[in-house]
Amino acid sequence: MNLFTEMRGLVLEALDQMQAEGALPQGLDFANVAVEPPRDAAHGDMATNAAMVLAKPAGQKPRDIAEALATRLAADDRVAKAEVAGPGFLNLTLAAPVWQRVVGTVLQDGTAYGRSDMGQGKKVNVEYVSANPTGPLHVGHTRGAVFGDALASLLDYAGYQVTREYYINDGGAQVDVLARSVYLRYLEAHGQAVEFADGTYPGEYLVEVGQALKDKVGDAYVGQPEEVWLEDIRNFATDAMMDLIRADLAQLGVQMDVFYSEKSLYGTGRIEAAIDSLRAKGLIYRGTLEPPKGKLPEDWEPREQTLFKSTEHGDDVDRPIMKSDGAWTYFAPDIAYHYDKVSRGFDALIDVFGADHGGYVKRMKAAVSALSDGRVPLDIKLCQLVKLWKNGEPFKMSKRAGNFVTLRDVVEQVGPDVTRFVMLTRKNDAPLDFDFDKVLEQSRENPVFYVQYAHARVSSVLRRAAEAGIDTSDAALRAADLGLLGHEAELAVMRKLAEWPRLVEIAARTNEPHRIAFYLYELAGDFHALWNRGNDLVELRFIQDGDEGTSQAKIALARSVAVVISAGLAILGVTPAEEMR
Q1: Contact 561, 493 (CB under 8 A)
Q2: Which residue, among 131, 130, 124, 128, has the nearest Cα to 148 in the 3D structure?
Q3: Could you give the CA distance from residue 556 to residue 476 in angstroms, rounded to a whole number?
Q4: Long-range contacts formed by 41-46: CB under 8 A, 24+ apart
């Protein structure tokens, strides 16, 4: 049940009636008529822009339309008051039974309350993390992993068929560097002194890999030239790093449906097929690019290259896909990879990248637009940096990793639930401060605690009610007289519960899972406010001594809060707390 959709339906019925009666001309487009929460809660429960968007095409004053519409809406039992404001805004105050009905619906639907069929089963590919397989995941990857995983769950909740995908960047020069670094650890395992040159990976996480390689091949590669061992060690090291990355993701509760290897694109004709697809559309040509803007690099020289005409699909400049020596640029396999996604029949693609990929957005969108003839949209979400703090100072790098803080460092400090929730307390494109001390505080300033505490409080109410012999099964709570819930603090909680289905659709439509975290914080705030009012007003306490019927009605409200918090936390990948320790 989406109450806002229901009330929009009521508005549209009234507009149809006005057309039938001649108060509005026929043929008006109602597509932009909306029913939303008012900007100021003092103005009512909902507001509609109907009069404002229809005035010009109807050739009437917006206030005249609003007044006629208000009269018709006020005649409905669900509307307690319809008031015209300003030039033609229409504010609605709903009758208390409408809000009380929300509680029954939540208890009836359980955590399916708020689920949507908006996605209509469309296939969406969400690619996230996709870190180079050269070491453990760092804190920047952590944010992308949490964001991508929560977004995938959100889209699933909104009715999409979602595939979670990790693109293994195992086709570039960085895996050769990895192989050389592992070879040094392999020599070290044989008792040799080694020195890590600039550009190699000195992290201690490769010590075990070097030892494992020794256990596998003995001294077969000792003293051998690189051409003997490079490919074998590259494969061995990449597999070891992906095992490490999978274990890191598991620590965070992230599981992928697909791991796709970049290397699988080389030597298989897949890159050539993707480029041929673009060539058939007249989008591949030989040409010379304009010099880069600003100060020219000393080694820059104009040279003819094979280019993708990406400017025809919204990019700023055309992009090289083959170097002058005939080798592919790094962009070519990425085109091929997305061509493969399009060929797999996805209706939409989402890539989650780090902030350093900002310059990559337009070219990749242009490629997907060209490959799919504009049929498949690509949304690229950039995750900004995370700054770690502890004891008022920047959190130092991991000794094991060598030069960065790992995902495992963070999870071991605060646990996966706190890590995931905190990573979603800011929009993905905003920088995030992660303070290890504050995220473990038991205060309102800590959103993780605040939401978990609300759920734990409901659990405590249910335990105390059971001890008092009150039937708190969902069936019994649904049968309670919800008309007993009439205090403004109770109605505030019900209004917030009613927003959940609408919020889910907005968050899914905009690919913004942080909206879920924000909503849960607000719902928890309304619930805590009701709880605290009960400290002063006995009639607001959830358990009313000697009055099982009233207790069940109030417990039904508390239980519905827990249901929605559970559903929201499940989207975020966080476990609800039954009690706070």
Answers
A1: yes
A2: 128
A3: 9
A4: 43/83, 43/85, 43/91, 44/81, 44/83, 44/91, 44/92, 44/93, 45/92, 45/93, 45/94, 45/495, 46/4, 46/7, 46/91, 46/92, 46/94
Question: CB of 236 within 8 A of CB of 211?
Answer: no
Q: Which residues face 168 on adjacent strands?
A: 261
| Beta strands 123-127 and 348-354, pairing class | parallel
Measured N-to-C along each axis, helices 139-157 and 416-423 cross at an angle, to the nearest 10 degrees, of 80
- 136: tokens are 């453990």
How far apart are the C-alpha atoms of 273 and 26, rounded to whole Å? 53
**122 to 125, 143, 156, 373, 377: CA distances (angstroms):** 10, 26, 10, 18, 12
Average pLDDT over residues 334-342: 98
Q: What's the pLDDT score for residue 403?
A: 66
Q: How far is C-alpha 435 from the geometric centre of its chain's CA atoms?
A: 21
pLDDT in tens, 118-138: 999 999 999 999 999 999 999
The DSSP 8-state label assigned to residue 256 in this structure reads -
DSSP 576: P
Query: What residues does 161 pair with on adjacent strands?
Result: 123
- What pLDDT does residue 264 have? 96
**How are beta strands 35-36 and 46-48 bridged, if at all?**
antiparallel
Q: How many residues in total does the chain contain?
A: 581
| Digit-coded pLDDT (tens) for 157-198 | 999 999 999 999 998 889 999 999 999 999 999 999 999 988
Q: What are the φ/ψ torsions at residue 181 (nearest 5 degrees)?
A: -65, -40
Distances 38 to 43, 89, 292, 502 between C-alpha atoms, Å: 7, 10, 49, 14
SS3 120: coil
Residue 7: Cβ within 10 Å count: 23
Mean model confidence pLDDT for the chain: 94
